[in-house]
Design a protein that fits this description.
The protein has 266 residues and is mainly α. The protein contains twelve helices and two strands.
């Protein structure tokens, strides 16, 4: 009986946390669907904000640019971290503490400091380093590095990567094959979570994209900033649509992961 009450209490706490987290989004959605919200209950239901956005080609171009500029640095950063962790796990485990310090440095240089430093260092550098898009991708890779690294490192320690590689070697596999064909498939769920966290960070950035790209590369964040000056209702609609886009990307990534897991089980 006591265990049943604890089980119900745990479920209730989880439900309350979910409601607390979704409440701001729900309020944003409600505000985007009504013209006025002066009293307790909003009035004048309308879909004008959504029809205006969906019919605006510049909005969709901004969303596509945001997705592209989010995916490229995440893919590159994940590949580089996996290669670095291969060296650390297989050949130099003593380097792990130094790599951990190096990968956590970006925590201290985020915000407006990082893009200004990048501009001052590379704006007069030879091509392609002085290209704004190259600087933007590289800067985002620095920003998301701690999150990608920490997620991959924790999962490698969780599955016992060293022991898995030793076991695969006993069966005749090389170290490289064991790491990329045995260890990585076992940590893909953790890698996916880290990638989704990095996607949310890059997708929600405004300072870096505005400093490095300015008006030359209109993204969804900059589009929302422009709309914010004109209409609060349309701004809320942009937030809801961007949340849906992020949710679809996350769902697609987890669907691919689930499909691959089922194929391996068969």
């Amino acid at each position: 009986m006591m265990q049943k009450k604890k089980h119900i209490g745990s479920k209730l706490i989880i439900v309350l946390i979910i409601i607390y987290l979704l409440l701001p989004l729900a309020m944003t959605l409600i505000y985007s669907l009504f013209e006025e919200w002066i009293d307790v209950v909003p009035t004048a239901f309308t879909l004008k904000a959504y029809t205006t956005l969906l019919a605006d080609p510049s909005f969709w171009q901004a969303v596509v640019r945001t997705v592209i500029i989010s995916v490229i640095p995440i893919i590159l950063c994940t590949i580089f971290v996996l290669l670095a962790m291969y060296v650390v796990v297989v050949y130099h485990p003593e380097w792990d503490r130094f790599m951990q310090i190096l990968c956590t440095i970006p925590y201290a240089i985020q915000g407006v400091i990082l893009p200004i430093c990048v501009l001052s260092l590379y704006v007069s550098a030879p091509a392609p380093l002085n290209n704004r898009m190259v600087m933007l991708v590289a800067t985002y890779m620095v920003v998301i590095l701690p999150y990608v690294y920490q997620g991959i490192r924790n999962n490698l320690n969780g599955v016992g990567a060293g022991r898995l590689i030793e076991a695969a070697q006993m069966l005749g596999s090389s170290k490289l094959y064991a790491f990329f064909r045995v260890v990585i498939p076992n940590i893909m769920s953790g890698v996916t979570v880290s990638v989704m966290l990095a996607m949310a960070i890059v997708f929600g950035d405004f300072v870096i994209i505005n400093t490095l790209a300015g008006g030359h590369f209109m993204t969804a964040q900059m589009y929302m900033y422009d709309v914010m000056k004109k209409s609060g209702q349309r701004t809320c609609a942009v937030i809801v649509i961007l949340f849906i886009v992020t949710l679809l990307i996350s769902g697609f990534a987890f669907m691919i992961q689930s499909t691959q897991g089922k194929k391996k089980d068969k």
